[in-house]
Write a structure and sequence with these properties.
This protein is an alpha/beta fold. It contains 10 helices and 7 strands.
């Protein structure tokens, strides 16, 4: 249930959109009933999306109740079950939105479903299809975030060469990303911050990967979005991050965020020995599996 909080935030927006129907109308009683058929079809999609969002909201209420219960094996099983149902609903939700965008590509109808936080559901290829300038909905105001996210991920899409960064390290010395990247090693450029809970949760996995592969043509360079140097240094020490670190201590205004189009952390970019980006946003088993593949 990776994005269920996003789905919950969408509730009012989507439920409102679903009630708007379509702008297609019959012009007179003698016109072939094409517009009416379209209205009926879009009404089904609107209704189904509304139903899925409503189910996700109910699931959120359920998980909040269960989470407040006394810790037990039964509670853990209930949470696992809810997460599983949440994953299924999110998959259906995403599939519906993509189907709407494709089926009604020449109209403005999909825009109402692609607004707000919905864009965070989609990967690069999906965003590329959604953000087609030739679509009928491309210039609708609801498309602002989707287009911004697509432009951001374009900056670090696999196949592109990495972009250099110049920042202080933890001693205050100015260093460059190019001091490490493009020097014959695979390099994981890891974007994180001491204040980021998910970053800290993922870090043991990154530490494990580093300890396993650091002697096998592999390096990590941490790019911190911290603003407080003491907090940054303390987190590096407590989390066991023994690889090189950089930070301009500008938080979300870091040049690293703008250069690589980072909108959320943890995030990372895996670069090959020649400096070409080969993967992004690898976490958990995905990170371990990719490193095993390229460093075999």
């Amino acid at each position: 249930m990776k994005r269920i909080l996003i789905a919950t935030a969408l509730a009012v927006q989507i439920l409102t959109a679903c009630g708007q129907g379509t702008s297609s109308q019959k012009t007179n009683n003698n016109t072939v009933n094409t517009a009416s058929a379209v209205e009926h079809d879009t009404a089904w999609y609107s209704s189904r999306v509304s139903e899925v969002v409503s189910q996700i909201n109910d699931l959120m209420k359920e998980i909040q109740t269960v989470a407040n219960a006394t810790p037990s094996a039964e509670r853990d099983a209930q949470i696992a079950s809810i997460n599983s149902r949440g994953d299924s609903l999110e998959t259906e939700y995403k599939g519906l939105i993509l189907e709407i965008a494709k089926k009604y590509k020449k109209t403005t109808y999909p825009a109402k479903f692609l607004g707000g936080e919905t864009a965070y559901y989609f990967d690069y290829d999906e965003l590329k299809e959604i953000c087609d300038p030739k679509s009928g909905y491309y210039n609708e105001p609801q498309m602002t975030l989707a287009k911004r996210l697509f432009a951001a991920i374009e900056k670090r899409h696999p196949g592109k060469q990495y972009s250099d960064l110049v920042m202080p390290d933890m001693t205050g010395k100015t260093v460059k990303l190019s001091d490490y990247v493009g020097k014959g090693k695979y390099v994981l450029i890891d974007f994180w911050a001491s204040w980021c809970g998910p970053c800290r949760q993922e870090m043991p996995n990154v530490v494990e990967a580093y300890n396993k592969y650091k002697g096998k043509n592999f390096e990590i360079v941490g790019i911190s979005f911290d603003e407080n140097k003491a907090s940054w240094k303390a987190a590096v020490k407590s989390l066991g991050m023994t690889w090189p670190q950089m930070s301009d201590l500008k938080g979300w205004h870091s040049v690293g965020a703008s250069t690589y189009g980072i909108n959320s952390i943890p995030a990372n970019v895996l670069v090959d020995p020649k400096g070409k980006i080969i993967a992004i946003d690898l976490r958990g088993e995905a990170l371990q599996n990719k490193l095993a593949e390229v460093l075999k």
